Predict the structure.
Amino acid sequence: MALEAFRLKLRTVLDANPWVAGQLDKKRMLVHPKTGSDELVNQILSSAKCPKVLRSTVYPELVKATGGNPELAVQKGAVLQKTGGRITKLVVVEPEQPGGEFAIVFSMSHVVADGHNYYRIYNMLAGDAEVQSMSAQRISEYEERESEWTGKTDFSWLSGGGLIKGMLSGLLCGPKSSWCCYFVDQDKVNDKKSSAAADGGVPFVSTNDVLTSHFCKAAAARVCMMVVNMRNKISVKVTDADAGCYEGCMLLDPVNYADPAKIRACLSAGAPYTRQTQSPPLPGCCSSCPMAFITSWASFDFDLSLNGVSQQLLHLPCMDMPDMMDVAVVFKPKPGKLGMLYLAKRAKPDKLKSPGTILGDIVDSSIFPSLSE
């Protein structure tokens, strides 16, 4: 039932956004058909049986069964170049028993799409969003002026030895990471937002400001890379209707993530998105640099709305991340509820869930059993 519902929706989405059925050429550039077709639908949409894609499977195994499985998910850019595979894949994992729980695995290549694109298209396919066209025409001026969006100093650091050294140190010398996932206690976050704005002298702080500060402090990061969606935020016209990777990283340090108001000050200042409270220079190749990375998908609304589906039980990012740094993803595991998925290296559960924490219950104790032991 869900497969047939997807078939109709996907054809409509491809007619409006043929780039979703694109491929990568030898230069890793996107090439795509001019319109959708039933043949393209069949290349992107499929059903499969996978006994490990269950809510009783622990998270690392669930990641291997989905993102690490070429039958269920889009593979890395180099593989797509070699094989000519499509940049998008949509798979309905069949239930063990007729009429039982089933899974939807939707993936897009990060070479040509970011979280904004992912959720807009996913909402058109599996949600109740209106099907709208997005332009896949690359805005070359965005890349030509990319150093302006985060500042030349930060852009150089992200492109140079400081970042590489931090990642390698985390991979070779840092503590072993583990996955954990919690609901966000929205009442506590709201209290924190009010007090942080008043104490910090800013008009408001966002939920993401609060979550980012909490995570960075738990990780004790020397540098945290906070993903910023640059659409509608810079002097080059890049809007919600533009498909492609238009995200950058704002670099935060202990001084600038110490409280949510300081993060808000960094964002409110506009481009270049960088630290606004005076602090030491970014670490060089010879300095210690425990790192962290946070991205928020919370602003991308998604509620499953599909013929043949009675209830959405869980929405969960399945990401295979290298063990180099603390990572946090803000997302919505259930309609109307925020969650935090962590690859916890230094920000272990005892730090994340310390007294006064803004985190609530474990999102799913079967997928993350070690947290309930």
